[in-house]
Specification:
- The chain has five helices and seven strands.
- It is an alpha/beta fold.
- The chain has two domains: about 70 residues, Fe-S cluster assembly (FSCA) (GMP Synthetase, Chain A, domain 3), CATH 3.30.300; about 70 residues, Histidine-containing Protein, Chain: A.
- Strands 1, 2, 3 and 4 form a four-stranded mixed beta sheet that branches.
Length: about 180
């Protein structure tokens, strides 16, 4: 029984995951994974950069930085660190500068992130799995690589429509 379940799960992942990954070769997946790991390691070593607050994604050598930091120096430091990684073709710095938030706000933001993620999952023209959702003081940031303008616009509109969202910060990047 357990074997049948695992076989079904594997088949499902290949059937649905394969087409989503088909736009990159195996080598490109490995290269992007290596770039992402290198950038994350550089962020940890970068002085004044809260590496845990910065999201890093790579697609065919393009690095997308997103998340929230408390000052412009941290944002600039993250970009400098990313540019130093081997294999980086371009860095798109979509990090938002926002002051620290209270514990109560963090709890509210966590619930809001869940609502936005659920709304994106329900939207059939959006690949919710490729979009990172963050929130600070009810400002929601969507980050990640999307397939085109239509998907980007739909994701942003969906997030804006969630009750409790003050505004949506666009850190989405259309795949090159």
């Amino acid at each position: 029984m357990k074997f049948k379940f695992l076989s079904l799960l594997a088949t499902t992942l290949v059937a649905f995951g394969g087409p989503a990954l088909a736009d990159k070769t195996t080598g490109e997946h490995i290269d992007d994974g290596t770039i992402t790991a290198d950038v994350k390691a550089r962020l940890v070593d970068a002085k004044g950069v809260p590496s845990g607050d910065v999201n890093v994604e790579a697609y065919k050598g393009v690095v997308l930085l997103s998340g929230f930091v408390t000052d412009n120096a941290a944002k600039a430091g993250a970009e400098t660190a990313a540019k130093g990684a081997k294999g980086v073709v371009k860095v798109h710095n979509a990090i938002t500068v926002h002051p620290k938030t209270s514990v109560g706000s963090k709890i509210d933001d966590t619930a809001l992130v869940g609502k936005v993620k659920a709304a994106l999952i329900d939207e059939k023209h959006v690949d919710a799995g490729s979009i990172n959702v963050e929130a600070r003081d009810s400002i929601v940031q969507l980050g990640g690589f999307v397939s085109g303008k239509a998907e980007k616009d739909k994701a942003l509109a969906t997030a804006k429509g969630v009750k409790g969202v003050k505004s949506v910060d666009d850190a989405l990047y259309i795949k090159p």
